[in-house]
Design a protein that fits this description.
The protein has about 230 residues and is an alpha/beta fold. It contains nine helices and seven strands, in the order βαβαββαβαααβαααβ.
Length: about 230
Amino acid sequence: MLTVSLDALRLTPGARVLDLGSGEGRHLHALSVLPGVTAVGLDLSEADLLKSRESWRGLFPDAPLRIACGNAGRLPFPDDAFDAVICSEVLEHLQDWRAAAAEIARVVKPGGRIALSVPRFWPEAVCWKLSEGYPNTPGGHVRIFRKAQLTGEAEELGWRFLRSHYAHGLHAPYWWLQCLVWERRETHAAVAAYRRFLEWDILEQPRLTRWLDAALNPIMGKSLALYFEAPE
């Protein structure tokens, strides 16, 4: 389930990509099949990195996996280390997200591509309204971004805005449903049924739900994806 479009990064053989906040490896795994591309994942959660390693071994048993546990505000990489950086669904978790943005600017090469994704403002605001527990969960979301705000602050770093899109239109109702029954979300039958539907959709990719998701994305896509080019 990719939030970011890898095509927008213009990756060519020899490119190095950082997946910042790689989690369980969804973008990292997708990057690995691109010919000649070296992908590096970094995440603060050791548990997520272990899950990423387990799934990697099942998918790519003979390929090297490059992951590290680290802080987005203090990246363990030299300047201009990467041709592109993906930072998907991370900034909303950080108390000092601007420090992470500055680090991205430091490690990406001049002219490199940057892909950011965050929860879209209005679907996220609905979640906050429906449940006090949703934004107060340890490690959860600490802010809601507006598109103009995030784009403007990125441009202040010298990044050139390229384009944007919304993703995961089918996922917004799932999170609203969880928030409605927040204390019972792990056992609630409706939440479990919707989760099974989403898992089936991700694995099977039926044409009807792909069309429905694409139709819903501009209206209620759960995620906002933004693409930038670093200054030459």
